[in-house]
Automatic annotation (TrEMBL):
Organism: Ideonella azotifigens
Keywords from the UniProt entry: Signal
Leader sequence segment: 1-25
SUPFAM superfamilies on file: NTF2-like
Pfam families: DUF4440
Name of the protein: DUF4440 domain-containing protein
Domain DUF4440 as annotated: residue spans: 38-144
Gene3D superfamilies cross-referenced by the UniProt entry: 3.10.450.50
Length: 157
C-alpha cells in the first residue's frame, strides 16, 4: 500500500505541475515582452537623438499624440517635424526610474529624463517625467500611440 500511495502522490504532483505549466509559460512570455518593449523604447530614444526619421516613425502609430510639458498637443507629423528641425540638437540621455506595466495589449512605460542639447545655437535643458503608451497593433507590432510629459523643476545643485 505504501508504494501505491507514493505512486498516487507522484501523479498528483505531476498533475499539479502540468496545471502550472501555462502559468510559467505566460510569465516567461511576459518577461520576453517586457524585454522587447524595453529594448524598443531604448532604440526609439537613440533614434530621436540621431534624428533617424525612419526609425522614429516606424515606432509610432499613425494616430500618435503627444501632450508636451506645456500642455500642447502634437500629432505624429508635428512631433517628427519638431525633432528633425535643424535648429534642435539633443544630447544623449538616460532614463531614470524606468517602469513598464502591461495590461493585455497595452503597455505603459514611464520614467524620468533630463534632456539637454541646443536650440538655434543656445543651450537648453529640461527635466521631465513621462509616460509612453504602447498598443499592440492589428499587425502584431507594438507601437507608441501616446506620450505625456510633465515638466519637473530644475534639480537642486
Amino acid at each position: 500500500m505504501h508504494a501505491a500511495r507514493l505512486f498516487a502522490r507522484f501523479f498528483l504532483l505531476l498533475a499539479l505541475l502540468a496545471g502550472l505549466a501555462p502559468v510559467f509559460a505566460a510569465e516567461a512570455g511576459q518577461d520576453a515582452l517586457v524585454q522587447q518593449l524595453t529594448a524598443q523604447s531604448a532604440a526609439w530614444d537613440l533614434a530621436i537623438v540621431r534624428k533617424d526619421k525612419a526609425a522614429i516613425e516606424a515606432n509610432m502609430a499613425e494616430d500618435f499624440r503627444q501632450i508636451d510639458g506645456d500642455g500642447d498637443l502634437e500629432t505624429k507629423a508635428s512631433f517628427v517635424a519638431g525633432l528633425l528641425s535643424p535648429k534642435l540638437v539633443l544630447d544623449p540621455y538616460t532614463v531614470q526610474e524606468f517602469e513598464l506595466r502591461l495590461y493585455g495589449s497595452t503597455a505603459l512605460l514611464s520614467g524620468r529624463i533630463h534632456m539637454t542639447g541646443s536650440y538655434d545655437g543656445k543651450r537648453i535643458g529640461s527635466h521631465y517625467r513621462y509616460i509612453d503608451v504602447y498598443v499592440r497593433q492589428p499587425d502584431g507590432q507594438w507601437r507608441i500611440v501616446s506620450v505625456q510629459l510633465t515638466r519637473l523643476p530644475p534639480a537642486p545643485v
